[in-house]
């Protein structure tokens, strides 16, 4: 049995607690939030002990790992605290506000000899995973072009008010997932250029971004994100894909329809299941939470590094940082060595 504790009992952490409840041989014995009402509510809902101080919780509990579900500013102190206590760590995205913080967290957990996984769950959505498996399995030959797109007018600000008030919005919050999917499909990135703008006058940060990536294997991808796109059908929170290979093409269309065209056409319904605790339209994200948490447990048991490890996430985070710099300076940025 693995004993874990959750830090941060806000909007998204509830999905993580449901996900843990669906995974064998793991118990979340304690939860912590600086806001005692949130800590108590989550503890009562899921049957755990409640704390308001992470250090006190780590000292009092016998833990194997912590699952950090706070917003980005608290990630580094919490990851370093957990590593100092000799615990394995999962940390929500965006992993860090700076590359220096991200490198420091990877080093701290390495030094403790423990596993660090970033909760970068979009590439674990079952529909996206089906596309990744097909591309990696050579279904369309060698890919030379990709479009990874997420465009929506959904009111994300209602559930996550900080998205309207933070200086950085779509690249850091959502683009990070979509850039990570581009990496998972087409490999690591050599250069990136980006444009970004705010369309919604009521928010602080950018809600539209378009990024052009050159991948190591020679493929080019366009990664485009918008929370200012009013259209029907509303596809939130689906990531749509178009990949061209030298043998054929793959598309992940709206409605979780995976299309592979070679000589003929194969269409698969890759809609995610609606887990008992999940709610449309969030159910594809909610399912991916349980899948990524299961991946972490499998990696712990088998002594291997998670696919979405802290180390791997440095490359996704570098794309976020470089996208902001490129949009600001109208430059094209080489991210090798970041
Ligand atoms: P939230 O503000 O609703 O919850 C965060 C909670 O953490 C708050 O209750 C706050 O009191 C608590 N907290 C902050 N610092 C703390 C500390 N040092 N000790 C104890 N508690 C602390 O935020 P949210 O919307 O749940 O987002 C949390 C994280 O999850 C963000 O990084 C966000 O980007 C991420 N997120 C990920 C996904 C995904 O699909 N992977 C989806 C939504 C949000
Ligand atoms: O997945 C996320 O990180 C969320 C959302 C889908 C709203 O962008 O913040």
Automatic annotation (TrEMBL):
Q: Which InterPro entries match?
A: Gfo/Idh/MocA-like_OxRdtase_N, Gfo/Idh/MocA_oxidoreduct, GFO_IDH_MocA-like_dom, NAD(P)-bd_dom_sf
List GO molecular-function terms, semicolon-separated. Answer: nucleotide binding
Xref: SUPFAM superfamilies: Glyceraldehyde-3-phosphate dehydrogenase-like, C-terminal domain (SSF55347), NAD(P)-binding Rossmann-fold domains (SSF51735)
Q: A Pfam family name for this chain? A: GFO_IDH_MocA
**Ranges where the GFO/IDH/MocA-like oxidoreductase domain occurs:** 129-251
- Tell me which domain of life the UniProt entry assigns to the organism this sequence originates from: Bacteria
Checking Gene3D superfamilies in the record gives: Dihydrodipicolinate Reductase, domain 2, NAD(P)-binding Rossmann-like Domain
Question: Which residues belong to any copy of the Gfo/Idh/MocA-like oxidoreductase N-terminal domain?
Answer: 4-118
Question: Which protein is depicted?
Answer: Oxidoreductase
Q: Which organism is it from?
A: Gemmobacter lanyuensis
Q: Organism classification, top ranks?
A: Bacteria, Pseudomonadati, Pseudomonadota, Alphaproteobacteria, Rhodobacterales
């Amino acid at each position: 049995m693995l004993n874990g504790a959750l830090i941060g009992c806000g909007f998204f952490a509830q999905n993580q607690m449901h996900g843990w409840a669906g995974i064998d041989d793991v118990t979340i014995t304690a939860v912590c939030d600086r806001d005692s009402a949130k800590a108590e509510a989550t503890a009562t809902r899921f049957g755990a002990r409640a704390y308001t101080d992470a250090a006190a919780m780590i000292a009092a509990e016998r833990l194997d790992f912590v699952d950090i579900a706070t917003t980005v500013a608290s990630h580094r102190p919490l990851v370093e605290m957990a590593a100092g206590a000799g615990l394995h760590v999962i940390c929500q995205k965006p992993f860090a506000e700076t590359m220096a913080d991200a490198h420091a967290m990877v080093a701290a957990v390495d030094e403790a000899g423990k596993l660090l996984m970033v909760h970068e769950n979009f590439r674990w959505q079952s529909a996206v995973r089906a596309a990744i498996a097909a591309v990696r399995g050579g279904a369309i030959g060698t890919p030379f072009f990709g479009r990874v797109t997420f465009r929506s007018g959904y009111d994300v600000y209602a559930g996550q008010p900080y998205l309207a008030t933070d200086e950085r919005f779509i690249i850091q919050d959502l683009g990070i997932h979509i850039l990570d999917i581009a990496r998972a499909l087409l490999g690591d990135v050599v250069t990136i250029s980006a444009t970004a703008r705010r369309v919604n006058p009521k928010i602080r940060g950018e809600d539209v971004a378009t990024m052009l990536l050159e991948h190591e294997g020679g493929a080019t991808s366009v990664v485009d994100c918008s929370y200012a796109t009013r259209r029907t059908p509303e596809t939130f929170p689906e990531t749509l894909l178009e990949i061209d290979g030298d043998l054929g093409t793959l598309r992940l269309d709206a409605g979780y329809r995976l299309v592979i065209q070679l000589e003929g056409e194969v269409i698969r319904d890759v809609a995610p299941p609606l887990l008992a605790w999940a709610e449309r339209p969030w159910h594809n994200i909610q399912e991916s939470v349980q899948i990524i948490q299961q991946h972490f447990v499998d990696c712990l048991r088998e002594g291997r590094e998670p696919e979405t490890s802290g180390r791997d996430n440095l490359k996704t985070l570098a794309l976020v940082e470089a996208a902001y710099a490129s949009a600001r300076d109208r430059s094209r940025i080489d991210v090798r060595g970041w």
